[in-house]
Amino acid sequence: MSNSSKNIQIFVVDDETAIRQSLEGVLSDEDYKVSSFPDAPSFFKKLKKTKPSMVLLDIWLPGSDGIAVLAQLRKTHPEIPVIMMSGHAGIQSAVNAIKLGAADFLEKPLDLDVLVGKISEILTSYKMMKEPLVPEARAEESQDNTDVLPGSAELVESKLQQLTLRGNVVLNGTGLLSGRKTGIIVNPLEPNSGIVFQALDGTTVPGHISALENLKGSNAGQAFTANSTVLVHNNHYIRTVEHLMASLSMAGISNVLITADEEIPNIDGSATDFCTLINDAGVAEQEVPRQEIVIHKLIQVGIEDPDEKYLYIEPYDGFEVSMRINYPAPIFEQQYTFNAEKNSFEKEIAPARSFNTFENIDMAQKMGKVGSGYLNSHIIIHDGKVINTELRYPDEFVRHKILDLIGDLYLVGYPLRGRVVANMVSHGYNQALAQKIHLAMSS
Predict the structure, then answer these.
(1) Which residues have a Cβ under 8 Å from the Cβ of 427 and sit 6 or more positions away?
(2) Is the dihedral of CA 385, 102, 136, 305 positive or negative?
(3) Active-site position among 236, 243, 378, 427
(4) Which residues contact 300 (CB under 8 A, 6 or more apart)?
(5) How far is the C-alpha of 430 from the C-alpha of 401, rounded, in Å?
(6) SS3 category, 403
(7) pLDDT at 381 over 60
(8) Is 7 helix (H, G, I), strand (E, B) or coil?
(9) What pLDDT score does 187 carry?
(10) Could you tell me the pLDDT band of residue 118, with boundaries at 50, 70 and 90?
């Protein structure tokens, strides 16, 4: 075993002395630090002083069974992965354990080679998935180490006209974060108005990078929320705007008013319903030329390295996005390029849904960070497999990343003429690039 196992603490909770001793020996040989306990009280007493990296938990314990211990752990330490063990439990116990948040369930007598492999796999998975996939696990900080060169971007008049909607339309759904019913009313706006959100009390929130939550001055390297894109103005919040913004961007909508009760409905985690909404309303051409941002010089966030997050936009006659991701099973490495002139946004990008792991969603819900909206609006991954749906594309994951990126970049307020290249990025990097483009306009 490599040195990566050292300093990793594993707690074993089992009332059988022989099993505890066997696991202590095997795991110690793998360079793990191991502490074992015959019952729940001794385990919880130690837990008050030391937090392990993993718990191996027998389902049958004296006094308090393992399911009850697991339920308590999910409340107090939802971040600790737990492997349940049993020699007598049936399939229903295994299902209940997984539903409660167990990382895996193994039957006794234990295959020690399988157990060691599972421990390594789960610890690696938790480490890798925590950053890119845990909802609001932490702020994502962009490594902004490149300056915006003078003349990098220019606002020019387009040959096309500004567009708005022909009529008013309504869309209802469930909020991603709150889990409650919500909706939007979308209305046409006059030329040069831009994308404008409106709270129920009439307060307006610009659909612009300047209204981004946590935006501070001109610091493109500060931390942004990694879960979704949130706008705020005068203490009024409009949350999860990215899928709607992407649909407006690709439809060429310049001016529109969106009335919302704090959260944009997330529907199925894709942008399909927003595209349908725009088509139902119809698009109206306005007798005012559109403006667009032309990229003249490279604008970059992050270090260009396949093992690092980075994102840049470079000169290009059109609008194109190339995205690469590389996550644990079942995603692995995926790459996709979307060209706005050659490809259909509605057919190739809009239907791609948000994704996350069952463990991460469950953990976030138990911590009170998200509502039930996640369960019905995500591709859910468990044990290296998609468990709740059929994929719409084999590479649906990378397509969804492109969807998010397009929506975040429309916060600059105008269509872009440039080629975007992205590696392993989420909203924080997307928003940082949008801000740098915005700064380039005023430099």
Answers:
(1) 140, 224, 225, 226, 227, 228, 229, 242, 404, 408
(2) negative
(3) 427
(4) 146, 310, 311, 312, 313, 433
(5) 10
(6) helix
(7) yes
(8) coil
(9) 97
(10) confident
Among 92, 116, 133, residue at a domain's last position: 133
| Domain limits for position 307 | 139-442
**Same domain as 424, residue 286:** yes
pLDDT, one tens digit per residue, over 320-354 is: 999 999 999 999 999 999 999 999 999 999 999 99
pTM of the complete model beyond 0.70: no
- At 14 the pLDDT is 93
CA-to-CA distance for 239 and 230, rounded, in angstroms? 4
The CATH number of whichever domain residue 158 belongs to comes to 3.30.1700.10
Report the distance separating Cα 19 and Cα 11, nearest Å: 13
Tokens (6 digits) for 360: 């991460």
Cβ-contact 57, 85 below 8 angstroms: yes
Look at residue 217 and tell me whether its pLDDT is greater than 60.
no
388 and 252 share one domain: yes
What pairs with residue 57 in β-bridges?
13, 84
Rounded Cα distance, 177 and 63, in Å: 38
- 317 and 211 in one domain? yes
- Same domain? 37 vs 172: no
State whether 338 and 402 are in the same domain.
Answer: yes
Do 127 and 146 reside in the same domain of the chain?
no
Output the pLDDT for position 62.
Answer: 85
Q: Band of the pLDDT at 3, cuts 50, 70, 90?
A: very low
- CATH code of residue 77: 3.40.50.2300
| Residue that finishes a domain, picked among 133, 166, 197 | 133
Q: Is 243 noted as a catalytic residue in this protein?
A: no
What is the Cα–Cα distance from 97 to 422, expressed in whole angstroms?
38
Name the pairing type of β-strands 169-174 and 181-188.
antiparallel
Q: Is 353 exposed, middle or buried (CB count within 10 Å of its CB: 0-12, 13-18, 19+)?
A: buried
Checking DSSP bridges between strand 236-238 and strand 231-233, what pairing results, if any?
A: antiparallel
Q: Grade residue 149 by pLDDT with cuts at 50, 70 and 90.
A: confident
Provide the token pair at 95: 């299902």
* Count: domains in the chain: 2
In this predicted structure, the answer to whether residue 150 has a pLDDT above a threshold of 90 is no
For residues 98 and 162, state if they share a domain. no
Q: Are residues 45 and 185 in the same domain?
A: no
- The H-or-E segment that residue 41 falls in is helix 40-47
Cβ-based burial of 245 (10 A; exposed 0-12, middle 13-18, buried ≥19): buried
